[in-house]
Amino acid sequence: MILEIKNLCVSMDGKKLLTDINMSVKNGARHRLAGHNGSGKSTLVNTIAGNPLYTIDSGKIIFDDVDITNENATNRALRGIFLGAQNVPEIPGLTLLSFLKHSMIAHTHYDTGKDLSMSEFLEKLESAREQLNIPQDWLNRSVNVGFSGGERKRIMLLRLILTNPKLAILDEPDSGADKDVQQQIVDTINQMPKTTFLFISHQDNFTSLVGATKTTTLDNGKIMIK
Predict the structure, then answer these.
(1) Nearest 5 degrees, angle CA 57-CA 28-CA 85?
(2) CA–CA separation, 188 vs 173, rounded Å?
(3) Is the pTM of this model over 0.90?
């Protein structure tokens, strides 16, 4: 198992949001989280990724055989957890090129103990950019500033390819994306067989295209038992 969640209870500002969540995600899975709006799906994936807004009251999160329950979001990301959030922040003044460069430098140093050269970075960036047909001028624009919903999804895919995580969590990647971008998301997933995917989607068609291997349904902060 790449991810094991054991008896997890989560709250925010004293309000209980998740109760006794038990869930396992197999290596290489394409695991779907389902449920109506407000059922706790985004809370769960943000908690797995280490969002400090959420408080773990009890339970454990085991990732790749390591207890990460008390680790911060940075350490979890470096260990190989990627979060493609539904609502991404705009970062005026920070170019996409600089953001991607520093992210890759951190991941490379964590994984190998070595520094990433600029030539290596640019080679990998150019390959990923061409794969996604992303205009080069996007790289000099501020992160997410002035980009449409579909364009932000493509930037998310660029980050995903470059960081090559062990576990990619995608929170409604199909939302705000037209058919072409949705297909691009599916194609990218298919080209990353070593990455495990945990995704949220309300669209059965998109779920079918992804080829979900398992679905876990949440309701009112709890897992529904069939």
Answers:
(1) 50
(2) 12
(3) yes
What average pLDDT does range 201-208 have in this prediction?
90
More confident residue, 178 or 159: 159
Place of tokens 């709250």: 11
In order of their start, the domains of the chain are 3-223 (3.40.50.300)
Q: Across the chain, which distance is largest between two alpha carbons, in Å?
A: 52
CA distance 221 to 77: 25
% of the chain exceeding 90 in pLDDT: 91
Angle made by CA atoms 109, 115, 117, in degrees to the nearest 5: 135
Taking the C-alpha atoms of residue 189 and residue 198, their distance in angstroms, rounded to an integer, is 11
- CA pair distance 61, 131, nearest whole angstrom: 34
